[in-house]
Amino acid sequence: MKFGVVVFPGSNCDRDVAYVTRDLLGQPTRMIWHQETDIADLDVVIIPGGFSYGDYLRCGAIARFSPVMQQVIEHAQKGKFVLGICNGFQVLTEAGLLPGALVRNRDLHFICDRVSLKVERNDLPWTQTYSAGEVIQLPIAHGEGRFYADKATLSKLEDNGQVVFRYVQDNPNGSVRNIAGICNPEGNVLGMMPHPERAADSMLGNTDGLKLFAGLVEKVTALV
Predict the structure, then answer these.
(1) Were 206 and a residue from 18, 132, 199, 218 both cysteine, which residue would form a disulfide, CB within 3.0 to 4.6 Å?
(2) Which pTM was predicted?
(3) Which of 13, 59, 75, 86 does the annotation list as catalytic?
């Protein structure tokens, strides 16, 4: 399978993601400059963390209008896979691929830490290598990571099983219902604030994040 990693002006986790998919998992991976308009060769598109367009106006608000994003939307509508990490999650909500919004952290401070997450679903390609209810640890680094949605949207997310990850023990940013990651109803689009790519190499002492990428590779490879 082939991965593509979108690069906006201000992206800073793009090479980290590519290291995981290309070097650790041995999958073909290419960097997608934000002005590209042909991504038909890709199976998975990843929008990485960072500060797209300097986070001016609002996180993800300008990146949403990059030429590549219309292609990402069409990619998702075809049932192909899209992953948004941190700033990428913000971009996906701005683009309408995921509901809700990411707003300023509860204490209005940038947070760089490690958090515990509960895996709410393990029946998705993203999470099939985890156990149901498994608690994992992943790094976070964000200033606008507090997930917010109105009551009707939250009810729909819960009823449809779209909450994939929740913070446990401590909610670092004040996200409603401790939500750390959600998917679309079909399950092929995933957005999450924590960084799985920063917990993928054994040299770092934590490979909890590698399972997310490896599970997807395993699932898609089995379908081919």
Answers:
(1) 199
(2) 0.95
(3) 86
